[in-house]
Input
Amino acid sequence: MTEIPEADAQLLRHFSVVSQKHSARYRTALLLGAAADTLIKYVPAGTERTAGLRKLLEARDCMMRAFDDESAAHTAQQGTTS
Output
C-alpha cells in the first residue's frame, strides 16, 4: 500500500463517523467517508486529489447542516402546534 500524504490523511480524519448508528445522518456520513476512502485508493496523490477531498469534506459538512436545519425546523414546528 502506498503512503498517504499528510494533507490527505488529515482530511480523511474528518470523515470519521460519530453519529447515531443507522440514522439517515449516519448513513450519509458513512457514504461520503467511503467515497473519500475510494478516492484515496484510486486517484493518484497530488494537489488535485487533496483539493477534491477538501471539497468532498465541504459537501459532507453541507449535508450534515441540512440535517441540522431539518431538525431545527421540525422542533420549531412542534413548538407552534403545542
About this structure: The helical segments are 6-13, 24-42, 47-81. The longest helix spans residues 47-81.
